[in-house]
Amino acid sequence: MKHFRNNYFLIVLFLSYQLSAQKDTSSFYDTYERCITACNPNELLHYFELNHYKKEHIINAASYLTYHGNDYCGNKLAKLCIEKNDSITAGNWHTYSVQNTKNGNYAEAIYGLENSLAIAPKEMEGYYGWVLLYYYRDYKKALLHLNHYDSLTPGVIDAPVGENIHFLKGLCYYQLNEFEKSILEFEKNKVFEKNHFGKKNVNAYIYFYKARNYDKLNNLKLAEIFYKKAINQSQFPVEANYYLGMLHKYKKQNFKKAKLYFEKSKTFLIQGYKQQDSYVELFDEVYITQLNEDIVN
Amino acid sequence: MCLILIGHVLLAQSTLTDSCIFFNHKIIYPYYYPSSPSNGKDFYTIKQEFAKSITAKTNFNGIITVIFFINYKGETNFYKTQLCDLNYKTISMTKDIDTLCNQISEAVKNSGPWKPMLDESNHAVNCRKFYSFKFNNGQLIETLPK
């Protein structure tokens, strides 16, 4: 009883602060987005419940804490909230997972994804494959999920996170050194884009990755053809010019041609046109240091 | 009123921690928004430097992640190393990867000096950054995220 009274006293103290100084959510966020230590998830949950916050709001608040570097507090708050609710959706676990992936908390993120997948496999499996490919570089597992997701909707071309599933599968096979299979997937993607968007609008990176696969297979003739298709299809072809330069330098010993393509690549790169992402490095991403090394050496 | 006052004092004490001072009560952003922190090197160079520093021979299978914070002055602090296996289950550091973990931690600590991240108004802000190193049978096969 004494123990309870002490704890209760502390909670009342905390809540009195919360209620007096943090009358709205903006002041709550203002407090916890600027430090990484001053946070007690149990007290926060109690505060939210007392103020009749809905489960979604609490999970979003937890995600917000994690976003601002309070990983322990955010994750603990989310888990406490989830434990107390019997109507947790795949989306709730997805929210938990996404921020943890972005924060490099892979065990937590996959734990969240597995839970979301168990609730709604059709909704979540495409994302699972997509994120395993780009953020985890786990090509075998990504392929497993992408293939299963694809099999759930026969005859439909799926697009997890907006990317054609054949493009994603093509990248997986490419990274697994299964170049022939990769080429087949990129070809399927090309046919789809040609039929739906027209030949002029086919994504240049389909040609680029076909070229990369042929390059790896040492089919230099086809590699060159597809690098050139990628160059013609793109307004600022940094990658295709760079890797065509590499092909000429290392596989054809044609240094003059190599330098020509490197210089073209560099021009676009300096102008800031390379393919890149805010969160992760992309496959075959080209860097200025790398280019300068290849031009000089 | 008395309770409120004590509450304020307690919270004030708890917020006067190392982290709040380090961050000077400015917002902490993730490494990818609103801009990116920079150490003046592109990721190609960073990966090369990591690869040179991480030489320990092990049979480790898993991912070693080092999280750290860069404040508005470009100072770094609050380094934390966490591990998971290739099935993404949390694992603890063991003696056989002690040297590897130390090398990784040192390599990340030596990746600076960092320029602070800037917000939309070009004001220096705090940020959280991390590097992850994926190993397959002791071989460094990926460095993430960018």
Number of helices of chain A: 16
Biggest beta-sheet profile of chain B:
7 strands, mixed
What is the rounded Rg of chain B?
18 Å
**Low-pLDDT windows of residues of chain B:** 1-16
Beta fraction of the residues of chain B?
Answer: 25-35%
Order of helices and strands of chain A: HHHHHHHHHHHHHHHH
| Low-pLDDT windows of residues of chain A | 1-23
Order of helices and strands of chain B: HHEHEEEHEEE
Summarize the amount of helix of chain B as a percent range: 25-40%
Instruction: Give the tally of β-strands of chain B.
Output: 7
Overview of the structural elements:
The complex is a heterodimer of chains A (297) and B (146). Chain A is mainly alpha-helical. Among the domains of chain A are: 1-119, no CATH class; 215-297, no CATH class. Chain A is built from 16 helices and no strands. Chain A has helices at residues 2-21, 25-32, 41-50, 55-67, 71-83, 90-102, 106-119, 121-134, 139-152, 165-175, 179-197, 204-216, 220-233, 238-251, 255-270, 288-296. In chain A, helix 4 packs parallel to helix 6, helix 12 (204-216) packs parallel to helix 14 (238-251) and helix 15 (255-270) packs antiparallel against helix 16 (288-296). In chain A, 46% of the residues are buried. Residues 1-23 of chain A have low confidence and may be disordered. In chain B, strands 1, 2, 3, 4, 5, 6 and 7 form a seven-stranded mixed sheet that branches. With 146 residues, chain B is of the alpha+beta class. The longest helix of chain B is centred in the N-terminal third of the chain and has 14 residues, at 2-15. Chain B has one domain (27-144). In chain B, strand 6 (124-136) and strand 7 (139-144) form a beta hairpin. Classes of the chains: A mainly alpha (297), B alpha+beta (146). At the A-B interface, helix 1, helix 7 and helix 16 of A face helix 1, helix 2, strand 1, helix 3 and strand 2 of B.
